[in-house]
Fold these 2 entries.
Entry 1:
Amino acid sequence: MADWAPSATLAVLQTRARILARIRAFFHERGVMEVETPLMSRAGATDPHIESFTTRYQGPGAPGGCTLYLHTSPEFPMKRLLAAGSGPTYQLCHVFRQGEAGRRHNPEFTLLEWYRPGFDDHALMDEVEALARQVLGETRVLGPTERLGYREAFERHAGIDPLRIGEAELVAACERLGVPAVPGLKGRDAWLDLLLTHVVEPQLGRGHLCFLHDYPASQAALARLRNDAHGDAVAARFELYCEGVELANGYHELLDADEQARRFAADRATRARNGLPDVPADENLIAALRHGLPDCAGVALGVDRLIMLAVGAASIEEVIAFPLERA
Amino acid sequence: MATFSTNEFKRGLKIMLDGDPCAIIENEFVKPGKGQAFNRVKIRNLKTGRVIERTFKSGDTVEGADVVDIEYQYLYNDGEVWHFMHPESFEQLSADAKAVGDAAVWLKEQDICMLTLWNGVPIAVTPPNHTILKVTDTEPGIRGDTATGGSKPARLETGAVVQVPLFINIGDTLKVDTRTGEYLSRAEKA
């Protein structure tokens, strides 16, 4: 196919348009307000596993120029809207992640993010399921939805307790499970990610939706912590999987400004240790949390992957008009 | 030799792994939204032909392998090694049994083969996909039986044994597929 032409067929682009309209109708019916926030921000994502694109603004207000970060998700400004009293909001927008390209990744992709004051993570899972069933139900038969603890998923598919296992035992478990050793891989979370991507994920959501929840506290990101039934600290975080594909990531949101500031600082320390570029933390988010964020849950869903599942596409290029190589 | 980052991984890239030259067959980028990024690759060991799976942290680098595929003409086997000649430079090379491997039974003098060279030394020999070889031994042919099924083994001039239709005789020349070892047709007599 010629490079000027879209990599997605027009039939898929029509389905894509229908799905976008359906998503907007879903939230309209539920009284969730559509919002728009800046794609370019003065602060970036500190997460050591997410790299931001940067650009520069020069002109009135910034004679010397200033660095702007293309958002990797609209999370921070949407929380500032919540703190300002917006009530439930959603946003359908493009986000940008440096270095991510492959069968299921394009560095620019479409994210659906929404926030629900008064919801906890499980209440939000109900709503994520309702939306996913509406969009996927047309073309897929979905069995009963599963909610599976991170710990139970690893016990079932990898035979280990991911919350209590040590790094050396994790390395041995990978070897036992036939996962090839990865040179230079360090840290429990990195080895857990190796097992997750190579052993656990491919088993999740076969013929149904599967919510993986109660992540290790060390992988809380922006979720609050709580104790599970075994007395271990876990993150009130969930991910949605269907046919082994990660579709969404949600939290019962952290409200504590001091804890948020500590996590930003810890992220930046990790970045420095790993030789990654420093990223300024979003002080506006900290200030909004100090002002007071309502108790809420939020989730980000990869729209391109949802469309891939809806149309049975093997590659993200089949559902995006102009992926990176044609951009 | 150059080093390659995982961002340069693609099908056909030749890299060193555990001291052996390898070729990437498949490369997949996998990454949990909030976690470590990996490149999962399927790699063929060019010395053994074995396909293995490996995973790298995205962004890591590996050493490249100086491996090239060049067409050479097969000259002869001296009982120990197989001799080849570059059709233009007339440069000669010899390949040992390890490099020639299963290709040995398909090599006919003067055929153009693909030699895989690592640091200038042959590590693999690929015969032409189709080759024409004479039958040196088989059960006598059944006259007139050119249509019905049934097959029998026939030994060819290079030593290969293939299943052929019943009507084939000693002295016939056959077109065979060297990749599958299958009889394709009777060849026109030269």
Note: The mean pLDDT of chain B is 92.
Entry 2:
Amino acid sequence: MDRASSLSWLIEASYFVAAILFIYGLKRMSSPVTARGGIVWAGAGMLVATVVTFLWPGMDNYVLMIVAIALGGILAWVSGKRVAMTDMPQMIALYNGMGGGAAAAIAAVELFGGEDHGLTFGVLAVLGGLIGSVSFSGSLIAFAKLQGLMKSTVRFGGQQIFNLVLLAVLLVLATVIVTQHSGPGLIAVFFLLALILGVTMTLPIGGADMPVVISLYNALTGLAVAFEGFVLQNAAMIIAGTVVGAAGTLLTQLMAKAMNRSLANVLFSGFGDTAAAASEVHGSMKPIEASDAGVMMAFANKVLIVPGYGMAVAQAQHKVWELAQILIERGVDVKFAIHPVAGRMPGHMNVLLAEAGVPYDVIYDEGEINAEFATADVALVIGANDVVNPAARTDPSSPIYGMPILNADKAKNVIVIKRGQGAGFSGIENALFFLDQTRMLYGDGQAMASQLIQAVKSL
Amino acid sequence: MIDGFIALYIFMLAAFVGHEVIGRVPVILHTPLMSGSNFVHGIVLVGAMVALGRAETGLETAIGFIGVFLGAGNAVGGYVVTERMLEMFKSSKEKR
């Protein structure tokens, strides 16, 4: 074997190893016991693939390459290390957008280069560029919204028709570019319009639906990477991109299902549009003191804690876990009940609880725990609202009707820690708060958790 | 050369693998797994490196540079946040 062919053998072999490591890593990441090792395996695959790519024959611009890797790598490393766990969803959106942008950049270089790859590769290059661009600008909008840089949802009349027309124009342009080998002007217009489509597609989607959208863009980026992989004849990109495209699509469906929204619903209608006046709730909210609530929990047999995003905002998860530990020492059966959308995306609450040191085997999801509320003495709801609203089960006129909820209303006693009397994220009154067995503990989540700890300790 | 039916076979099999690998994932891991799969498509970095390496005109070089920058951000950022999240997942046995 001469030097060139042994080099390309080494590159192909390394990409093969990388593909195995990616799939093995993802497999391990799908179980909490092995998840930590999973990312390390996948990381090793990435390192191998990146290093051997420097050996690719006929390349130039090595200095620029190293500078770009260093710049992007360092920026991402620092921001990734610093980001708070509560801000994780938008950070994932940002990194995902970068991947989409990179795929679009590959497409742009290939198309501007003007080499004729044949019809199939032309089509894949253009499609990958389109999807990558949409994922790039769309993810940036998702990031801006969740980060609070962009407060309002922008909607204008005929927005969906505008998007459809834009998509049609893009497909026509794509056809022209592939068949006529157009000049750089038309290609530039194509990418500009694709970026605009990503923006106009994402703008009307509300913050609550954003996780589903981020997951969708994650899958789309995977697909774009796979397409560009075919164009570059890079097996590692094809396999990794396709695996992520398929896994991401499944994950998007799982998330949409957990939120009781269909994907079409998320993309083509805003949450709140259908929120007509739900039937009124009768009765009054009954307050309770922390000391009484503490006694109630200390002498209970079983306490189920229902945390919501409000708990994480109040940074109360450490105190809540401390409270749970004291109760467990007293022999109380304590479990955490997590709704799939308790955080800002499915699984986010588990990450926040894990940060506070809560072991994952006392955390149960909605399907596992719902039957247990009937035997629970106390359900402690902290910072959660819509996910425990029994109206989702009973009131067909409610906008959240049909959404799977945690049956906190089935517990013998319900204690709700809440800052004030206002309605929840969706602006819907919560029937749970007005039940006979419900007591409201008004105050900041962290302060109230501390008072509960004191109350239990003083017994 | 990967094209025609070979390409389709690879695409089909990889799609099934992606679907199967994630099929039975518990909800508690959805966020880290999304982040992890986000990291995996950071492999786009190697494609961007090749695109930059082969770039000839100034425009191609500039776009290639941006591509490598973005790809590196995807790969490194994806790894760092996924590792941070997964590192925190512990069972009560490991605690004691």
Note: Chain B touches chain A through 85 residues (CB under 8 Å).
